[in-house]
Amino acid sequence: MAHVSEAKKTTVEELKKTLDTYNVIGIVRIDNLPALQFNRMRKLLRDSVVIRISKKRLIKIALEQSGKKGVEKLNQYLDGMIGIVATNENPFRLAKVLDKNKSPAPAKPGQQAPKDIVIKAMVTPFAPGPVISELGSIGLKTGVDKGKVAIKEDAVVVKQGEAISGKVASVLTRLGIEPMEVGLDLKAVYEDGVIYEHSILAVDEKEYINSLIAAHRDAFMLSLGIAYPTEENISLLISQAVRDAKGLSISREIFTGETLKELIVLAERRASALQGLA
Description:
By secondary structure, the chain is of the alpha+beta class. It has three domains: 6-102 and 183-202, CATH 3.30.70.1730; 117-179, Alpha-Beta Complex (Molybdopterin biosynthesis moea protein, domain 2), CATH 3.90.105.20; 208-277, no CATH class. The chain is 45% helix and 18% strand. The protein has ten helices and twelve strands. It has helices spanning 6-21, 35-45, 56-65, 91-100, 130-136, 166-174, 198-201, 205-225, 234-251, 260-277, and strands at 24-29, 49-53, 82-87, 103-105, 117-119, 122-123, 142-145, 148-151, 155-158, 180-182, 185-191, 194-197. A five-stranded antiparallel β-sheet has the order 2-3-1-11-12, sandwiched between helices. Strands 6-8-7 form a three-stranded antiparallel β-sheet, with helices on one face. Strands 4-10 form a two-stranded antiparallel ribbon. A hairpin with a 2-residue loop joins strand 7 and strand 8 (148-151). Helix 1 crosses helix 3 (56-65). It is flat and about 110 Å long.
């Protein structure tokens, strides 16, 4: 049996203690994250989020030995250079905080594009020369505008998920475009036996609020259409019912305190019309 050092045992115990202390556990990747930015984020988040960086093997053991039911499912996200984040905040807030504290960074050859990388039409600071061929080699349409090389049309130079070539990375750097983000890249979060991937937690708040507003409006209009009484629509439904009842009583010439005046006026009009015909 292979000897396990005391240091590794201690690390696993510390990881297990973190897992069992906090309600929400996340797996983050720290690839290409500079030490300076990592330390800045650790300091920024220290009041609400605990960050533990360790070897994947030790994290895997801690997840499997933790007292939290189902937390071992996070093992499937142990890819690349990873760490654990632990908090008592809800998963959506955790994802928002981590995403908010990412910083733009230049692209490096071989990195995967986090989204479509677009170079927009612009007048570059470059004078005509070899740069025209360099821009053209990655599919950019160029021309000359007032003595400077111009990119004539917006162009997607790398699609989401594709590797960034050396040529594209060089052009992006020369143009001052930083399409990458560095920070704690949240892969998945555990809470109460449920695993949430980052794609679920990355909610556009404005879009979400607009969706709620639209849903409320549609539900309100539907409740009016089918005359389903609620606290929000009851006054409108009663007003509509009164109008409908009054209209029906007038059309059927049913005398009530509310319709008497209208029916008399209607009778006078008819009498006048008959008198005119006579």
